[in-house]
Amino acid sequence: MQAIRTIESRTVVLPSTNIDTDQILPARFLTTTTKEGLGRHLFADWRYQADGSPKQDFILNRPEAAGCEVLVAGRNFGCGSSREHAPWGLLDAGFRAIISTEIADIFRNNSLKNGLLPIVVDEAAHAWLLHNPGASVRIDLDACTLTLPTGVVASFPIEGFARYCLLNGIDELGYLLQQADAISRFEQTYDRIHIA
Amino acid sequence: MNSPTDVAPQAKTLFEKVWEQHQVVAETPDTPAVLYVDLHLVHEVTSPQAFSLLRSKGLKLRRTDRTLATMDHSTPTDPDEVFGRVPIKVESAALQVKELERNCREFGVELFGLSSKHRGIVHVIGPELGATQPGKTIVCGDSHTATHGAFGALAFGIGTTEVGHVLATQCLLQRRPRTLAIEVSGRLSEGVTAKDLILAIIGQIGVSGGTGHVIEYRGSAIEALSMDERMTICNMSIEAGARAGMIAPDDTTFAYLKGRRFAPQGAAWEQAVARWRALRTDPGAVFDRVVHIDAGEVQPMITYGTHPGMVVPIGATVPDRPGDAAHVKSLAYMGLHAGEPLIGRPVQVVFIGSCTNGRLSDLKLAARLIEGRKLASGVRMLVVPGSQQVKHEAEAIGLAKIFTDAGAQWRESGCSMCLGMNGDLVAKGEYAVSTSNRNFEGRQGAGARTLLASPATAVAAALTGKITDPRRLLAGAQPTAH
Ligand code: SF4
Predict the structure, then answer these.
(1) Cα A124 to Cα A80: distance, rounded to the nearest angstrom
(2) H helices within A67-159, ranges in order?
């Protein structure tokens, strides 16, 4: 995985609260066996008409959304299904960070494992972002800060180990595989009790 | 006088006990815990990329004896497709089925495949086969894995990358979540089901009320529930944002498990039960948060919006939340107006099934209410058993015939219309009363309008063609909407 330190980008804003993973990537596109190409289906039901043509008024179809790497969304983004196709789709469409006041647990985990930053900020910074779509922001993962064009700096929490892995481009599976001896020792005792 | 050895060990919650038994490496400020997984359930939709990862890294599957696979999400429910008499209509789904068969063969995983009599929705077959047991850590690439917590297991959904981690190492990197006790006192009234209770709980704490927490459901109303009902409760924990929900195991749990295929047998059974009896929250153990609910006040519930927290007692009107843009957008999608009653609204589709309400007791309740009656004209009703075993039992005791005599469609098991991956869909603009767990926009088909409710409420809608209070049916009255 590629190391991530800073992201500088304009924002795209989807103000709805509780945007669930069925909206982010509808179930009918999950019958795939790879991760590739899911960006095409991102927010499919909001983005396309029934005949497949783009809805001109949906933000992701507008010229100002082109090249944006940061998505600002309403509270409780990513709730619902555990489908990792949601962060895969967002990444494939060019997003590298999601900003909200609350991000659902499984979506947050899945995002961290793929290098999509789930950024939870305070209400004030969030409200400013919702009202200023297209603002240029700077995310610093090392400092855990989000800088608004007004100069306001908001800090965000991020699990320390995941942050370390992202900053250094380390794959968590590699770390787990290094625990093989500890796992074997655990299994020796555990299996004796739990497998009759 | 107390010497140090007399001091009672620290009181622990059920969650803490299970968590601590599975820590291979405890968490530190810098590193998450390495948590051991007892049972990994695999299905066709969230596993292909994980198996590909193993293959690309040349890794083996660490514990095939702790891994079980089935197919449920994208599989057909039409018997001709299931048993290979005609090809599977959704081509990409057919490919996924093939891919899982290949992966299980190559990596040595036991698979309950399309024609297996043990196949079914992953959260229905785990318990049914006795693979789900108290005190286990259980994971699956599916958010409703919380269902298995009904047995006192710590069970939660994971993403596909983590599916790969578990396949390769039988472990996950996890931070310890907080604990939330939901204390349910009293008793559910006549005509009110476990589904109504969990919908009422989600309505009270909200769709993100449990985020970051593991819920323990406790209290007299929970202890009085059957295992099927407990599963309905734990199943929807994720709908309140909690990755896991647990209920302490008791004699009801043990009676359910005894003699099932993967349950311990003989002397091992006695030892297991002795161990399982210790899996209770100690008196004095502290939860991070506690919520109280009086079961006696819960009414039959129904959702009116586009997430499960948008829920009201069935006799209520559609709530008004002026200035709340999400609420307004949601009502527009649903074609509903604030202030209007829900009772009496026409319904075109009824779905009974899913990992929430697709077990035998759900079908028995529905069949009892529908027996000898006919669907209202213009209503399409699908009854999809949660597993092939549920299907065969239901057929053996005559339930299937009761449904088909009434005019409903009886299908092979699977997720079906819960998420519409296999072509079982609700059409744009149609209202569907569904016993599943998610009413998100488009969940049951693009433009579909889902109203979540209990099997009793679903049958009441099927018989009247309108949203109807199920207590009218239960009381034996002729079902009418007014
Ligand atoms: S029945 Fe529905 S909620 Fe349950 S596992 Fe299947 S798709 Fe998920």
Answers:
(1) 26
(2) 85-92, 105-112, 123-131
- How far is residue B482's CA from residue B480's CA, in Å, rounded to a whole number? 6
Secondary structure of residue B237 in the 3-state scheme: helix
Backbone φ/ψ region at B206: left (φ over 0), alpha (ψ -120 to 50), beta? left
Ligand 1 centre to CA of B359 (Å) is: 13
Q: What ipTM does this complex have?
A: 0.94
**Structural contact between residues B382 and B409, judged by C-beta atoms closer than 8 angstroms:** yes
For chain B, report the end-to-end CA distance as a whole number of angstroms: 70
Euclidean distance between CA atoms B441 and B305, whole angstroms: 9
Instruction: Please name every residue paired with A99 in a beta bridge, in sequence order, or none if there are none.
Output: A72, A119
- Whether A173 and B440 lie within 8 Å, measured CB to CB: no
User: B51 Cβ partners below 8 Å, 6+ apart?
Assistant: B99, B103, B106, B107, B164, B167
Tell me how far apart the alpha carbons of residues B17 and B434 are, in angstroms, rounded to a whole number.
Answer: 36
For ligand 1, pick from B44, B355, B390, B439 the residue to mutate: most ligand atoms within 8 Å of CB.
Answer: B355
Distance from B161 to chain A by nearest Cα, in Å? Answer: 7
Query: Judged by CB atoms within 8 Å, which residues 80-109 of A form the interface with B?
Result: 80-84, 87, 102, 104-106, 109
- Closest residue by Cα to residue A97 from A120, A74, A125: A120
pLDDT (tens digit, 9 = 90+) per residue, B191-249? 999 999 999 999 999 999 999 999 999 999 999 999 999 999 999 999 999 999 999 99
Contact of A141 with A114, CB cutoff 8 Å:
no
| CA-CA-CA-CA dihedral for B319, B324, B326, B329, to nearest 10 | 70
Tell me if A84 and B24 make a contact (CB, 8 A cut-off): no
Is A173 close to B168, i.e. CB distance below 8 A? yes
pTM of the model: 0.95
Angle at B368 between CA B462 and CA B361, to 5 degrees: 100
Mind listing the pLDDT tens digit for each residue in B203-213?
999 999 999 99
Instruction: Specify the ligand 1 atom closest to the Cα of B438.
Output: 3
Q: Please indicate if any CB of chain B lies within 8 Å of the CB of A192.
A: no
Of A180, A187, A196, the CB nearest to B264: A196
Helices (H), B115-193: 122-128, 160-169
Determine the Cα–Cα distance for residues B132 and B468; give it in Å rounded to an integer: 36
The answer to whether residues B127 and B148 touch, using CB atoms and an 8 Å cutoff, is yes
Name the closest-CA residue to atom 6, ligand 1.
B415
Cβ-nearest to A161 among B31, B62, B143: B31
Query: A131 CB contacts (<8 Å, ≥6 apart)?
Result: none
- What contacts A137, CB < 8 A, 6 or more positions away? A8, A9, A10, A11, A70, A99, A129, A146, A147, A148, A149
Token couple for A1: 């995985």
Kindly indicate the confidence band of residue B19, based on its pLDDT and cuts at 50, 70 and 90.
Answer: very high
